[in-house]
Design a protein that fits this description.
Number of strands: 17
Keywords: ATP-binding, Folate biosynthesis, Ligase, Magnesium, Metal-binding, Nucleotide-binding
Shape: globular
CATH topology of the largest domain: UDP-N-acetylmuramoyl-L-alanine:D-glutamate ligase
CATH class of the largest domain: Alpha Beta
CATH superfamily of the largest domain: Mur-like, catalytic domain
Pathway: Cofactor biosynthesis; tetrahydrofolylpolyglutamate biosynthesis; Cofactor biosynthesis; tetrahydrofolate biosynthesis; 7,8-dihydrofolate from 2-amino-4-hydroxy-6-hydroxymethyl-7,8-dihydropteridine diphosphate and 4-aminobenzoate: step 2/2
Helix content: 25-40%
Distance between the termini: 31 Å
Number of domains: 2
Strand order of the largest sheet: 4-3-2-5-1-6-7-8
GO biological process, one term: folic acid biosynthetic process
Radius of gyration: 21 Å
Largest sheet: 8 strands, mixed
Cofactor: Mg(2+)
EC number: 6.3.2.12, 6.3.2.17
Number of helices: 17
Length: 432
């Protein structure tokens, strides 16, 4: 049997991986996924699922749902991507990462079985298959499954869930998903299944009709969470939590609902979670208010979620966030503006296949920038990013590594300053 490190080397170097190489690793069909599912005797049929898609917020919503289900006593699987520190973050059961031994065992078994089949899966296709097989072996009651990219052609889209969830739609991965919001919405709507209720987190005029048409076609009950639930206000508490007041149909139903995720953008995600819980309760899941409160209070502890307005240092305040597209960065900038600081330092790197101009146009001009790159082939060169940023009034210096950029930022920052690290999931991964 190979070592865990040898297996990781195989997964990273021998299989096409979107996170590293981009569109070259994207498959425009589910053929490999279906063949892998047959190879391992359809493991996803052994447990209930909740399917979560969307442009932004799907990771947070997935982790919040998993935390609530765990607090209710359900043995809960959680599949998310990408990982930040450890490959095994992608596959968890009750918050515990898949074991190294299980990763090795599955990969060796796949290669043994594949002697005859000769499937050539992508990294993501094989990882999804690994997750489903592991969840079956662990006898989970339910698994929360986060879509990797899009929805219709995503490898996770062989499940028939209890509830389908689409958090929101904004511009991202346009080369693969389409260059208009309705086109992107149609790809996300591909997870809507016959007779399976679907929750859309945020209503937008351009995309609402897309979801209505998809849902009507397969007779899926459709709910827009923000048409029922509203976060009245949110504030940070002295004990380091976020407190929210939530209204449902104009009536206050949750006062001082505490969340251990500090990003103000979670005020958009919590209503989506609550609407999903409503639908699960209608199906008999018995998720009470006290369980919901415990679940939201302990998301990080229960699920290990990282990188969402995560404070990693004080004096100066150092924060990282994985927001990386136009909609995500807009909310990050809003939070930066609501945070107290004397001077602002931004360590930023982006990938080359993103619409960098739309992100750079949103960033504050009153900051010192440290342009850098994550150690992946998709990363944009710092000098290229800096040249584009200059057109938007953003100035700073270039650094070859994220660590070096952060080190200089920390050396320059006073104790009352804010150092923000972001622009890409992979930049955040390198400092956690």
């Amino acid at each position: 049997m190979r070592t865990y490190q040898q297996v990781l080397d195989f997964l990273y170097s021998q299989l096409p991986m979107f996170q590293r190489t981009g569109a070259a690793a994207y498959k425009d069909n589910l053929d490999n996924t279906i063949r892998l599912d047959e190879m391992f005797d359809h493991p996803h049929r052994s447990f209930k699922t909740i399917h979560v898609a969307g442009t932004n917020g799907k990771g947070s919503v997935s982790h919040m749902l998993a935390s609530i289900l765990q607090e209710a006593g359900y043995k809960t699987g959680l599949y998310t991507s990408p990982h930040l520190k450890d490959f095994r973050e992608r596959i968890r059961v009750n918050g515990e990462m898949i074991t190294e031994e299980a990763v090795v065992r599955f990969t060796d078994l796949f290669q043994a079985k594949n002697e005859l089949e000769k499937i050539e899966p992508s990294f993501f296709e094989l990882t999804v298959s690994m997750a489903f097989d592991y969840f079956r072996s662990m006898n989970v009651d339910v698994a929360v499954i986060e879509v990797g990219l899009g929805g219709r052609l995503d490898s996770t889209n062989i499940i028939t869930p209890e509830v389908s969830v689409i958090t929101n739609i904004s511009f991202d991965h346009m080369a693969l998903l389409g260059d208009t919001l309705p086109k992107i919405a149609a790809e996300k709507a591909g997870i809507i299944k016959k007779d399976v209720p679907v929750v859309v987190g945020e209503t937008a005029p351009e995309t609402r009709i897309v979801f209505e048409q998809f849902a009507e076609k397969v007779q899926a009950r459709l709910a827009f969470a923000d048409q029922e639930y509203l976060t009245d206000y949110s504030m940070l508490t002295v004990d380091g939590k976020q407190s929210l007041n939530i209204r449902k149909n104009d009536q206050l139903i949750y006062s001082d609902l505490k969340l251990d995720l500090l990003g103000i953008y979670q005020r958009h995600n919590v209503p989506t979670v609550l609407k999903v819980i409503d639908l699960l309760n209608e199906k008999g899941w018995n998720l009470s208010e006290s369980i919901i409160r415990k679940g939201l209070l302990n998301v990080i502890q229960n699920t290990g979620l990282l990188g969402r307005w995560q404070i990693i240092g004080h004096n100066p305040l150092v924060v990282c966030d994985t927001g990386h597209n136009q909609a995500g960065i807009k909310l990050v900038v809003e939070q930066i503006n609501q945070t107290a600081w004397k001077a602002l330092h931004i360590v930023i790197g982006m990938v080359s296949d993103k619409d960098q101009d739309k992100v750079l146009a949103l960033l504050p001009t009153n900051a010192k920038y440290y342009f850098t790159k994550a150690s992946i082939p998709r990363a944009a060169e710092p000098e290229v990013l800096a040249a584009k940023a200059e057109r938007f009034g953003l100035s700073g210096d270039c650094y070859p590594t994220v660590r070096q950029a952060l080190s200089v930022a920390l050396a320059n920052a006073g104790e009352n300053d804010l150092v923000f690290v972001g622009g890409s999931t992979f930049v955040v991964a390198e400092i956690l």
